[in-house]
Write a structure and sequence with these properties.
Radius of gyration: 25 Å
Structural class: alpha/beta
Distance between the termini: 34 Å
Number of strands: 9
Strand content: 5-15%
Shape: globular
Length: 298
């Protein structure tokens, strides 16, 4: 996975620039790439306990995957282990680190130094995994000039010069959603080719720019779904979708009904949508979807 311009750090050795290319040349699947950090985390824990070798079953359990998938993933790295012995932990740590491009220094800029930005700036895991926070940026005059993790918060006007001078190719966005796209555009124009987005919005980027999105609220909603199922609290299929919607959604629906002269009846709220909607987009009798389309913006 290409990440962008090679940082010209003094810690970079001659073969490290080439270390990123084998994954593309050998055609490592994206799903495998996504699991490599899981393996690396498990292997690092084993290395810290001075465990010399590990079986595929043990490592798969530690990483949360099945052993057949792990062996297939490692075959893309050219690592097959030794029958009856397993995998050499230190060598696998090196192999995966090299494949992920972690054998060199990656300068990172964090834009948006609110609570989340502060937390990320203070996260000690960056340095131990090959990432260096090169700069903290914000546009708020009240924030600029303060510090986090021993680094001064600099103004967004310095973005382009920092990216160029520090050879930054990775940007982290922790701004409010309304500012995220503008920040993203400036990062891309400055030469940043990989972006980690914590803002709850979808970013539009040109070809050649990679975006990874971290949305904590979505993850919590997925957990809530599973908790509801474990508790046996299944939604009542006979009730309206709006009956289980958050308060603001129900209030908006009621306002739309009043504006349309629909009164307060739940049944009447759904009927106009089913009657007036395009048959190709709303199908009466299918349950739920027609009602949502009547009150929720596209």
């Amino acid at each position: 996975m290409a990440i962008g311009r090679s940082p010209q750090s003094s810690s970079q050795t001659p073969d490290q620039g080439a270390a990123r290319r084998p994954s593309r040349a050998r055609g490592i699947p994206e799903a495998t790439v996504a699991r490599l950090p899981l393996y690396l985390r498990a292997l690092t824990a084993l290395s810290e306990r001075s465990v010399p070798t590990v079986s595929s079953e043990e490592l798969a359990a530690a990483a949360g995957v099945n052993s057949a998938k792990l062996r297939k993933d490692f075959s893309y790295l050219g690592s097959y282990g030794t029958r009856g012995v397993g995998y050499d932990v230190e060598y696998l740590v090196y192999q995966i680190s090299r494949e992920l491009g972690l054998t060199q220094d990656w300068p990172v800029v964090i834009v948006g130094i609110g609570n989340l930005g502060h937390a990320l700036a203070n996260y000690g895991g960056f340095a131990s995994r090959g990432f260096r926070v090169a700069a903290l940026l914000d546009a708020d005059p009240a924030v600029v000039g303060t510090s986090a993790a021993g680094l001064p918060v600099r103004h967004m006007d310095e973005l382009e010069s920092i990216v160029e001078s520090q050879h930054v190719s990775i940007g982290v966005i922790t701004t409010p959603p309304g500012a995220a796209q503008q920040v993203c555009d400036r990062l891309v124009e400055a030469g940043v080719t990989s972006i980690l987005n914590f803002a709850p919005t979808v970013l539009t980027v040109p070809d050649g720019v990679d975006v990874r999105k971290v949305d904590l609220s979505i993850e919590l909603q997925i957990l809530a779904f599973h908790e509801q199922r474990k508790a046996g609290d299944e939604p009542d299929r006979t009730e309206s979708v709006l009956d289980r919607a958050p308060g603001p959604v129900r209030a908006a629906a009621a306002k739309l009904r009043r504006a349309a002269g629909g009164g307060n009846g739940k049944a009447r709220a759904a009927e106009p949508a089913a009657k007036d909607a395009d048959p190709g987009t709303t199908k009466p009798g299918k349950g739920g979807e027609g009602e949502l389309s009547a009150v929720m913006p596209a």
